[in-house]
Amino acid sequence: MPNIIPEESEIWDKVIQWGKEQTPNLLSDFEQWNNENFLAIKTILEKCIPLIRYFQMPGKDIAIKVNPYRQILGSNL
Questions:
Q1: I need a surface site. Which of 21, 30, 59, 65 has the fewest CB within 10 A?
Q2: 26 contacts 20 by C-beta, under 8 angstroms
Q3: CA 22 to chain centroid
Q4: Beta-carbon neighbour count of residue 72 at 10 Å?
Q5: Can you give the three-state secondary structure of the chain, one letter per residue?
Q6: Would you say which domain of life the source belongs to (predicted)?
Q7: Which tens digits make up the pLDDT trace of 1-22?
Q8: Rounded distance, CA 12 to CA 34, Å?
Q9: pLDDT tens, 41-52?
Q10: Angle between helices 8-22 and 35-45 (to 10 degrees)
Q11: Nearby residues of 20 by Cβ (< 8 Å), 6 or more positions away
Q12: Distance separating alpha carbons of residues 3 and 71, to the nearest angstrom
């Protein structure tokens, strides 16, 4: 029987994707984002971000998927 519960890293990907879609005029390459861009997506995702169980993500997923967006995370994460 296949696992129908998504992995936390998959949830992270979907949340980030949704946040990008909700943020007008956002560059597709996050490496080109400025502080205003990060603040905009942080505002959109502020209620979703704390619900993700980062401790259940493999370290490589944290490094590859989460670290690039560390500006949108609270200091306690």
A1: 59
A2: yes
A3: 13
A4: 21
A5: CCCCCCCHHHHHHHHHHHHHHHCCCCCCCHHHCCHHHHHHHHHHHCCCHHHCCHHHCCHHHHHHHHHHHHHHCCCCC
A6: Eukaryota
A7: 566 778 999 999 999 999 999 9
A8: 21
A9: 999 999 999 999
A10: 110
A11: 26, 28, 41
A12: 32
Would you state the structure tokens that stand for residue 48, as one six-digit string?
Answer: 């979703």
Specify the residue for token string 């259940």.
56
- With CA atoms as reference, report the closest residue to 12 among 56, 43, 76: 56
The pair of three-digit structure tokens given for residue 34, joined into one six-digit string: 């400025």
- Asked whether 29 and 8 are in contact (CB, 8 A), the reply is no
Report the amino acid identity of residue 13: D
What confidence category does residue 75 fall into, taking pLDDT thresholds of 50, 70 and 90?
confident
Q: How many CA atoms lie within 13 A of 48 on its CB side?
A: 16
